[in-house]
Amino acid sequence: MKSSIYSLTFDQLQDWLIEHGQKKFRAKQVWNWLYKKRVNTFAEMYNLNKDCQLVLEENFYLGTLEQEIKQESKDGTIKFLFKLSDGNLIETVLMKFSYGYSVCVTTQVGCNIGCSFCASGLLTKNRDLSAGEIVEQIMNVQKHLDAKGKDERVSHIVVMGIGEPFDNYDNTMDFLRIVNDQEGLSIGARHITVSTSGLAKRIYDFADENLQVNLALSLHAPNNELRTKIMKINKAFPLEKLMPAIDYYLEKTNRRITFEYILLKDVNDHKKEAEQLVSLLKDKRHLSYVNLIPYNPVDEHNQYDRSEKKAILDFYQVLLENGINCGVRVEHGTDIDAACGQLRSKQIKKDKEKQKA
Length: 357
Ligand code: SAH
Ligand code: SF4
Fold this sequence. Notes:
Blueprint: E1 3-4, H1 10-19, H2 26-37, H3 50-59, E2 60-61, E3 66-72, E4 78-83, E5 89-97, E6 100-104, E7 108-109, E8 127-128, H4 131-147, E9 154-159, H5 169-180, E10 192-196, H6 200-207, E11 214-218, H7 224-230, H8 233-236, H9 239-253, E12 257-263, H10 271-281, E13 288-294, H11 309-321, E14 326-328, H12 342-356
Parallel strand pairs: 1-2, 6-9, 9-10, 10-11, 11-12, 12-13, 13-14
Antiparallel strand pairs: 3-4, 4-5, 5-6, 7-8
Helix pairs in contact: 1-2, 4-5, 6-9, 10-11
The chain binds S-adenosyl-L-homocysteine (SAH) and iron/sulfur cluster (SF4).
């Protein structure tokens, strides 16, 4: 059965070529075509010999994603809805910042973690994405930039789309190695951030990977009672399991970690929670950054509202006064359903309605 060539790391492609009677140096040529020249067919790889081209063609697809929808926001954010080869839909978002272009990728079709505020978790996981399907999201967006002819490149990646990356750990790690590889896209590890809802045992593994990739933890509450209420994953990995994993990560990597905190009106945005958060983080504040995130309303989760501006500022102030590095996330593309999973869940609803009609 054919698979996506974008699923292979450089070493894996090299091994594969050798096993199939090809020369080792072909891997470098193939990657140059894939990631630097960014061709769409094997036939265009004219410096490979015919035999090598054929064996690749017989065994691999070069691109399996089909673009279904492209929504452009007033602020330049573009949301892509892609169809996978099995018909499943996923989302990818391109955002423009002063420091460059950042892409938010999806790692799973749906999500089993089921956080109470999230559109992605509305639909349980259908399957994991292959490393190639995650890489292809970047390639498609890069080709969109290429088509503009301005020589612009994707310079940053956030693994914050649909899915829990640490529930698809191996494919996510391959993805990171592929996009970071100097023979390919060469996107700097320090420009890549992986966000997890807190699968503690995988945080230990991630610390041991020896990657310079950034880690973000979706904390959202400073105590177990509240965290369990809004994120049921906290039952499996409560703070007394999660925080030691974070400490291990910090000790091992000495890299700063981002704590994400969605502010939900009257739920987790009081002074009390801000103070609890300070206590939770104070011993690691030199390596912590708290990202306060305005809640992006999701129709199905109408029990939540966005915090008032004053509550956000007061919360921020408490952290700041206590020496915790923090900021309030600037939003992108709120006019185009940019909260992860929203475009997809709306499209699936529409498709279902169409089927009924
Ligand atoms: N599963 C991973 C990564 C994908 S979610 C995780 O949970 O970390 C990426 C980020 O978007 C998380 O911090 C998540 O909590 C946040 N998020 C989810 N739904 C949101 C919403 N409605 N408004 C704002 N942020 C949201
Ligand atoms: Fe899954 Fe992350 Fe959404 Fe939670 S916030 S349901 S872990 S995608």
